[in-house]
C-alpha cells in the first residue's frame, strides 16, 4: 500500500473542486459568456487529468499528473477572472 494514496486523493478532489465551482458560479452570475467559454475546456482538461492522477498506481506518475492538472486549473481560473475583468 502506498503511503501517499490518501494525500493524492485529497489533492485530486480539491483540484476537481477548484475546477468546477468557479466556472459554475461564474456561469450563474455573469452576463458575459466569453470568460466561461474560454475557461470551461481548460478546467475540464485539468479536472480529467486530476481524476487520472488520483487513480494512478505509480506515485511519480500521479504526482506529475496532479501537478499538470493544478497548472491547467490555475490557468483556467486566471483566464476566467482575467477575461471577466477585461470584459467589464
Automatic annotation (TrEMBL):
The chain crosses the membrane at residues 12-30, 36-54, 66-87. The keyword Transmembrane applies. This is Uncharacterized protein. Keywords: Membrane, Transmembrane, Transmembrane helix. It comes from the Bacteria.
